[in-house]
């Protein structure tokens, strides 16, 4: 039986924490960075959501290749390249100066953003299969800690300039890169690596078809796809929603993001271990999805009545659902393949998530502008109801 490599696990957790911090620190300021380049205020929400979609498009095309390359050459070199690319992407986004520069920053970051699939493959390598969902819960909790600190820090740093959080995110990611060069152990033994990579395996559409052909994965991935569409929409419009509906500033937006991150830690640290003793991965996933539906309903109500307490309560309930769905889903995915295939299935899973996060922000931005601020959340209620039916 595989024994947990504690040194590799600790490094992995530190890496996830810094990635969470670097990614979330920019969240409160994106609409404010876009604002100077938009002549029509009504277009701002669409541009913000397009920036999210461009990132997801790049992840979609890059993730399968990164996953396959990590199966062939090991996790370490791929993770290091991805970290360096993310640091460059943050820096370019912070420089700004024109709308195309902002998109260039997101493209650079997105091409290397498929690293999350390699991160999960890394943890799958070093953790015992029967305990993997528990350890993925720890990973989510640590990512939540980074996500809790990041937005509040980003909101505070924005007082010195809206680009400052971007530069800080670049520095944090660069620190992670340097730490990885010095201390990161390789997790994939040479005898478990692929002998060769075919061009077919680097094609994201082929990867999608292959991953969906795995019997145990098809329904799970289709269900998750339906859930990720509104999630991507909510993530893309969150800051713009709070600005337009409640007139919130970066510091308040960052604080709200941080509260969600703290709640994620609580859910992973105290609630998830108890659920794992009494419920299966699938049952926990269903509970998470139902919670997200309730959360979306309250978020929609907050827009209809311009009543921010509904929004805060809704985000708490949504956040709880999201925090328990993630590790249960990743646990089910990782258990469906052997060690030499972890990069492939995690890369394929990441591609499907990215596809949903391409579609979600585009649809969300359009219906947000045309149908009203409540529309993306209402879409979430209906799509998650469909996702639960698919998973059953």
Helix and strand topology:
Elements (H helix, E strand, L loop, with lengths): L5 H19 L5 H5 L9 H30 L1 H21 L3 H13 L3 H12 L5 H26 L6 H20 L15 H4 L1 H9 L5 H29 L3 H29 L2 H25 L2 H27 L7 H29 L4 H17 L1
Helix pairs in contact: 1-6, 1-7, 1-8, 3-4, 3-5, 3-6, 3-11, 3-15, 4-5, 4-6, 4-8, 6-15, 7-8, 7-12, 7-14, 10-15, 11-14, 11-15, 11-16, 12-14, 13-14, 13-16
Characterize the structure shown:
This protein is mostly helical. Helix content is 80%, strand content 0%. It has 16 helices and no strands. The protein has helices at residues 6-24, 30-34, 44-73, 75-95, 99-111, 115-126, 132-157, 164-183, 199-202, 204-212, 218-246, 250-278, 281-305, 308-334, 342-370, 375-391. Helix 7 packs antiparallel against helix 12 (250-278), helix 11 runs parallel beside helix 15 (342-370) and helix 13 (281-305) runs antiparallel to helix 14. The longest helix is centred in the first third of the chain and has 30 residues, at 44-73. The mean pLDDT is 85.
